[in-house]
Design goal:
Length: about 300
Amino acid sequence: MLESNIPTRKLLADFYQYLSAEKRLAENSLTSYHHDIELFFSFLTGHKQQTITANTLNQLQISDFRGFLAARRNGFEGEPVGSRTLARNLSSLRMFFRWAEQRREISCAALELVESPKIPHSLPKAVSPQIAAEILSEAGSIERTKVPWIAARDEALLYLLYGAGLRIAEALGLTGSDLPLGEVLRVNGKGGKMRLVPILDTIGLAINSYVKLCPFPVLGDSAVFKAKRGGAMSARDAQRLMQELRSRLGLPASTSPHALRHSFATHLLSGGGDLRTIQELLGHASLSSTQIYAAVDAKHLADAVAKAHPRS
């Protein structure tokens, strides 16, 4: 039976526990859900001018959700946001209310009538094989870092992104227990989805070279990729690395760590790989997430024809 006076902080804590213990979501996903739902509760408190409880949630109207999305678009508790962020906010709310209906008997039919914002279609920003080679070469340049083990680390990390299609969090999540790398790496991806990724010889060699040069032990549960002082390398460290490489090579801002993963998929498709295989390698839950790479490849071919065809 619904306890109408359950405070939202209790509901949010229980929901967070559900996502963590039962859904086994990654920390970044947990943080996003928590942030989105907290923002909604904060908006409702001001919007309704009252303390928000389970009973309040049970009586929400379409206008309450539309008001929240409008407030977010106009900069509620932060900078104005676009359609992509609003769609994520709404997705988080749908997940929360599905859980609340199943576990706390909170029913909110109005949410099902709220349309998700239209998200502009955009293609992944892949780099050419030549540019990818230049990035890897520059990453491994001792002249750039003046520190051999750092250069070896940077090269090995980017080899995993471009040569194996790993997400940056997946690459940085490798531990000493994953070494030495064999022909296949077991990767724990988004939502705890496990997949097997083939490891090219060049990747294995790059990792081995780095580990031999690394002044810090890479053992057990400790991170493979170390920061300068021996702690785990962070995603921000990887972003700074790509910023430096972009600057040195004169590349656009779209050349991010994730762009190398996009390039991995795009170049596989160009080389004859099929979408289903690429889906498995990337760890996409559905084929529709992978099909965008077909558009990338088609665009590449169209651009090449436009430049080279005598009748273009």
